[in-house]
Amino acid sequence: MAVKKVTMADIARLAEVSVTTVSHVLNETRFVAEGPRQRVLDAVSDTGYTPNSVARSIATSTTETIGLALPAMSKPSFSGLLKHIESEVRSTRYSLLLTDTEDDPALELHVVEELHARRR
Fold this sequence. Notes:
The protein is mainly alpha-helical.
């Protein structure tokens, strides 16, 4: 049996606010009075709501993703760098899309073109 994903409309209904208010609370784009803000946060907590990253990408025209192509991830010299990059990205709202080009110039070009197609 499929589980219904909780939507912003569901959160708005539970918190007795508009979908716009839910959006402002979750994205911190405008001030929302403490009462409605707390009801939204409680509804999010009670339902386990998670944002739909695809819908967000469409609405904002951004993916909040950083693409990283490395020539050979197995090289020891990249492990420390990769760990630092991942740590920094994790501290933001961004995701890290990582790929290994295996020191292959043709694959590197393909990967860079793919990352460019996903830009923003």
